[in-house]
Amino acid sequence: MTQQQRTVAAGHASPWHGGRRRRDRALKRDAVIRAAARAFRERGYHNTSLDDIAAALGVTKPTLYYYVRNKQDLLFECFQAGLAGIGAAFDEARRSHGNGRERLRIVLRGYALAIASEFGWCMVRAEDQDLDAAMSARIRARKGEIDRQIRALIQQGTADGSIRDCDAKITAFAIAGALNWIAHWHRESEALAAADIADRFIGFFEDGLRPRR
Amino acid sequence: MTQQQRTVAAGHASPWHGGRRRRDRALKRDAVIRAAARAFRERGYHNTSLDDIAAALGVTKPTLYYYVRNKQDLLFECFQAGLAGIGAAFDEARRSHGNGRERLRIVLRGYALAIASEFGWCMVRAEDQDLDAAMSARIRARKGEIDRQIRALIQQGTADGSIRDCDAKITAFAIAGALNWIAHWHRESEALAAADIADRFIGFFEDGLRPRR
DNA sequence: CAGTTATCTTACTCATGGGTAACATCGTGG
DNA sequence: CCACGATGTTACCCATGAGTAAGATAACTG
């Protein structure tokens, strides 16, 4: 079985397959990041070598450096890729004219889907420990911003009566923690699809947060 | 500043300090495991070298091998050390004659304290990725057992009416996830003490789980 | 106090893997 | 169709860190 056959068998097309060498930098860079995300999730950041990632794409290690500065950067890009979905969910929530609880639901759904995606593991694990000061500061800033916005939605909900009285800080931590944890156990092969998991978790928290009549 | 002064300044006495070499294998082994747990939590498993751990104790690397088989084993022992607290909480819950919700509270309190302890990070992160098949299987078994017992308490609670109707599996996942997540952000320097955090999280979930009147 | 054992150190080995240099090759625009 | 820039490759360097071997030294034991 060739490398190409193996990669394809895993269900992940590589832009390097198919005879002709093509010039499509953006597409290839994307493929590199996705391959890295999958490998990191599967085996962990430190147990994944750049050779592994390159092999999964049917390419050699130095090629990766043509698309990415270094290994750290790769992890950071995986983080950013996952972030997009969350940003979109916040936008959607802002556009909707629902009450706090409904807006929170929209955000949490996007959040849960992002965490269950191939980038989820990287988003959750990309932290101080493996990154230099600059990158780790950027990540902390982004995560802090998300936390802040979730708290704001919770407070809006308690203000408009759609969420029961609660400590916004603890509530946000608890919900985000529970959702983040999904990245630790969810695999694509799982019985439950990502959307299913998201809905159930959200259902659980919504029931818990709805005010007592 | 000597190594001893540094270690002491960090608030962690080492059995190797204090002139005379003493024979106290159990105590020293314990110190090794605690030092490892702190270092892993601080910098991560892969970013911590055995030299680091040894230095924190004022000792050289080969000495560690006198107390522990290898690095994996060290991580595994950290996991087990943290487990003790959880086991005790389950025992206490069994002895108590409260309803499901009250028993769950006892367990969750012990669980949260264990996660917030110095071993919490290791408990949460000790997984397949960094351990060989045998150890990883043992850890998965222990974690599965905990999950099973938490679900049982939830079901008991819904049966006796102390917990609202809910999917026990999702509920257990959500609660355990939220508590596990504490290990990712809690540090001893934190404004909130561990017991405080535990109580607030439990309060949050209890309010959410209490049945509607 | 002498021999024995537990404990610890110095001084290594060796595999791994991130990163780079220099060269080969493909595609495309003039 | 050819020269030049965009892609990739082979072959390397080198720091790090897990683990070991063999010897030193301190604490017990008789």
Q: Quick summary of this structure?
A:
The first copy, chain A, has 213 residues and is mainly alpha-helical. Chain A has helices at 3-9, 25-43, 50-57, 61-67, 71-95, 100-116, 120-125, 133-160, 168-185, 194-209.
Question: Can you describe this structure?
Answer:
The structure is a homodimer of 213-residue chains. The first copy, chain A, has 213 residues and is mostly helical. Chain A folds into two domains: 3-67, Arc Repressor Mutant, subunit A, CATH 1.10.10.60; 82-209, Orthogonal Bundle (Tetracycline Repressor, domain 2), CATH 1.10.357. Helices cover 71% and strands 0% of the residues of chain A. The first copy, chain A, has ten helices and no strands. The mean pLDDT of chain A is 92. The interface between A and B is medium-sized, with 35 and 35 residues.
